[in-house]
Amino acid sequence: MMQLQVAGDFAAQHFWPNAPVKYVELGKRHRHVFTFRALIEVSESGDREVEFLELADMCTAHLKNFLRDNPGSSCETLVRELHAFMARLGRPPTRCEVLEDDRCGAVYAPEKGGCACCAE
What we know:
By secondary structure, this protein is an alpha+beta fold. Helix content is 27%, strand content 31%. The radius of gyration is 15 Å and the shape is elongated. The two termini are 23 Å apart.
């Protein structure tokens, strides 16, 4: 199987609704550089089947807008949104991740057809 990696990053603010006392500062808007990566299947004999730079730009713009409109979103929410967005484009990732400051975050690797956006 041949896979293509699509990746990008963007600076944005978010907050943790109902953050516990220990992390009270995270309950206020704070800035991160969010990093995302996604793997998509392509044909083994193909060459430039997908323009990954264009797809990365589309994913970056979508995630920035989503987080702007949903500032209480977690990395788990963002990674599910990334997967759903790419699935709507006809390229559901086999694996995707969203990290805060390229350190900690969420990884999503649904079984084929095992997620709501890909189930037919």
